[in-house]
Design brief:
The protein is an alpha+beta fold. Helix content is 44%, strand content 15%. The protein contains eight helices and seven strands. The protein has helices at 2-30, 43-52, 81-89, 129-134, 142-149, 162-168, 183-197, 203-213, and strands at residues 74-76, 79-80, 90-95, 101-108, 113-115, 121-125, 157-161. A three-stranded antiparallel sheet has the order 3-4-5, with helices on one face. Helix 2 (43-52) packs across helix 7 (183-197), helix 2 (43-52) runs antiparallel to helix 8 and helix 7 (183-197) packs across helix 8 (203-213). The radius of gyration is 21 Å and the shape is globular. The termini are far apart.
């Protein structure tokens, strides 16, 4: 009986340890897939903010220039906004005295790619700079455009693969979406950024965002 009891106990222990391992593994895989950008709203809040945004035809790209949105400015000590996002969105990141990552990995939730060198990582402006220009930023001061382009307080910046960022370019959600498992989070980030910064959106863009939020 004692031997049977010990054997049963061992089997239960093995099962319990295996279950724990599965949970830990799932968390370690899933965690990087969720945006670490701050102030991502709930679905309900995102829908309310989306409803509050002004719907209007998109403005002109005339006069747009990336130089009108100075970015990767120093925001903390000697660290610029790009370096801060690399630290925030990375996994097991080590940095040198110049704030540049020396080791780490970065999961790109747009396309499910893991990157092992910071030089392969792009920092995506969730609402692209040209899209912001066409949605109201053309009338902003240079200082406000700079604050938008380096925004670490709201979900406007996200580490991604270079290929996904360049595929997206300056497209809105009617033209480009991340992989399906990230569309809910991406829509919430897009809505929160436009809402916080007082940008407008088109009717088709609003419909695309509502569809994406319904995947939450």
């Amino acid at each position: 009986m004692t031997g049977t009891f010990i054997s049963s106990t061992r089997r239960l222990l093995v099962v319990a340890l295996a279950a724990c391992a599965l949970v830990i593994a799932s968390l370690s895989v899933a965690d990087p897939a969720h945006a670490t950008a701050p102030n991502i709203p709930s679905k309900a809040t995102a829908l309310a903010e989306l409803a509050a945004l002004t719907v209007t035809p998109e403005g002109s790209s005339s006069g747009y220039d990336r130089a009108k949105f100075p970015h990767w400015q120093t925001v903390s000590g000697s660290c610029n906004a790009r370096e801060m996002v690399l630290q925030r969105d990375g996994i097991d990141v080590s940095v040198g005295s110049d704030c540049q990552p020396t080791a780490g990995r970065w999961y790109s939730p747009y396309d499910g790619v893991t990157l092992y060198s910071s030089s392969d990582v792009d920092i995506d402006h969730v609402v692209p700079l040209a899209e912001a220009w066409r949605s109201g930023a053309s009338g902003w001061t240079q200082a406000k455009r700079e604050a938008f382009a380096n925004d670490l307080s709201y979900p406007q910046l996200r580490a991604s693969s270079a290929s996904s960022n360049r595929s997206k370019s300056d497209s809105d959600p009617t033209e480009w979406k991340p992989m399906s498992s990230y569309q809910c989070t991406y829509a919430k980030m897009w809505v929160r950024s436009k809402y916080h910064w007082g940008l407008t959106l088109q009717s088709a863009e609003k419909s695309a965002l509502q569809t994406m939020l319904n995947t939450c």
